[in-house]
Task: inverse folding
């Protein structure tokens, strides 16, 4: 049990590191979009705020899409450390679900709280909660299955 808890903790930290990186990339791309389409455009581009909102949304979608990818990589390593497929299934699913939510909350918090005044049309944190909760499901499935397969290959 101790090994499973350590594996879950390690995987959660891996997801958190990805969350920080994705949040910073969201901040960079969002700031760039604001400067190009609103600030430097001098208000001449009426579509600017809408495009900036789309840029932020696109970044959030990337965070959600990367969840299963990170889960697959982390769970494959995690499963190789566990002795049974059942332990891999339990640890991989739990670690992927918890890790995904940590990654998403960190990334979305950085993105949402770093929005400038020209990004008022971009989504709020509460608007992203529903999609985030749903995106955790396939992430947990991938994590549990790949961890179990990796454990079975031991």
Result:
């Amino acid at each position: 049990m101790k090994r499973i808890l350590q594996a879950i903790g390690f995987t959660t930290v891996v997801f958190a590191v990805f969350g920080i990186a994705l949040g910073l990339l969201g901040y960079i791309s969002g700031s760039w979009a604001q400067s190009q389409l609103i600030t430097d455009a001098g208000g001449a581009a009426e579509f600017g705020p809408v495009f900036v909102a789309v840029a932020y949304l696109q970044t959030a979608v990337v965070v959600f899409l990367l969840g299963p990818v990170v889960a697959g990589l982390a769970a494959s390593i995690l499963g190789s450390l566990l002795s049974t497929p059942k332990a891999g299934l339990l640890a991989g699913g739990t670690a992927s679900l918890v890790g995904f939510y940590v990654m998403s909350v960190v990334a979305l918090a950085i993105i949402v709280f770093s929005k400038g005044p020209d990004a008022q049309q971009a989504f709020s944190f509460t608007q992203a909660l529903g999609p985030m909760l749903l995106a955790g499901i396939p992430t947990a499935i991938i994590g549990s299955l790949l961890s179990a397969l990796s454990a079975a290959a031991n």
Q: What stands out?
A: The longest helix spans residues 2-39. The chain has a mean pLDDT of 86.
